[in-house]
Every structure is written in C-alpha cells, then in structure tokens.
UniProtKB/TrEMBL annotation:
Family listed: Belongs to the YciI family.
Matches recorded under Pfam families: YCII
Coiled coil stretches, renumbered: none
Name used for this protein in its record: YCII-related domain-containing protein
InterPro entries referenced in this protein's UniProt entry, alphabetically: Dimeric_a/b-barrel, YCII
Cross-referenced Gene3D superfamilies: Dimeric alpha+beta barrel
Domain of life: Bacteria
TM segment ranges: none
Start and end residues of each YCII-related domain: 1-110
Secretion signal, residue range per the UniProt entry: none
Organism field: Sandarakinorhabdus cyanobacteriorum
Length: 117
C-alpha cells in the first residue's frame, strides 16, 4: 500500500529555505536520504512557495482563475499529482478536467527544480 506524505510548513519554515539553507536543507536531505535508504520512496516533489500557485474553480461552466492557493476552509487536500506540460495554460486545462474542479478547487503550482548533482 502506498501513502502520500504531504508536508505543510509554516511561513517561518518556508522562509528558512532561503535564509538558513544549511540547517533547513540538511535536515530535509537527511530525512529523504533515510527514506531512500529504506527503499520506500516512490516519487514526489518539493513545491515552490504558495505565492507561485494558481487556483482554478469552475462556476456555471466558466473558469475562475486566481493567483495564489485560495481554498475554502471546507476543502481538504485530496491528492497530489505531478504532470509535465508546456506551460501554465496547459496545466490549467488539465486542472479544469479534474472531477473536483466544479465543487472544490485545483491548485496548480510549479515544483522545485531537482537538486544539483
């Protein structure tokens, strides 16, 4: 059975990505390394900050696109899928096809680039 581990961080922790890189990334590298050594990792990606997100809702058949992750409090994160497409417009087109787009929302966010070798 597979499980998705979806990490929510405080604003202060996200700020450490740029300001306290050795401690922040060192802890994440150790954690991810341990899971890799245990042979349990199947995939995933770090996300760029929420300010890079675009949220799509469909109301009355019309797209409502907003900058940022504006999810109603009644909405709960239901999953995480990584796609590779040419640009944000293509990603939004796929988001619009999601079953939850009419009643909930789909957050579209770029992923972090892979670590340098």
């Amino acid at each position: 059975m597979q499980y998705a581990l979806i990490y929510h961080e405080t604003a202060a922790e996200l700020a450490r990505r740029d300001n306290d890189t050795s401690a922040y990334w060192g802890a994440w590298d150790a954690y991810m390394g341990a899971m890799g050594a245990a042979g349990i990792m199947r995939g995933g990606a770090g996300l760029l900050p929420p300010t890079t997100a675009t949220t799509l809702r469909i109301a009355g058949g019309e797209w409502q696109v907003e900058d940022g992750p504006f999810a109603d409090t009644r909405e709960k994160l239901g999953g995480f899928v990584v796609i590779e497409v040419a640009d944000l417009d293509a990603a939004l087109a796929w988001a619009a096809r999601a079953p939850c787009a009419g009643a909930g929302s789909v957050e579209v966010r770029p992923t972090l680039p892979p670590p340098a070798a």
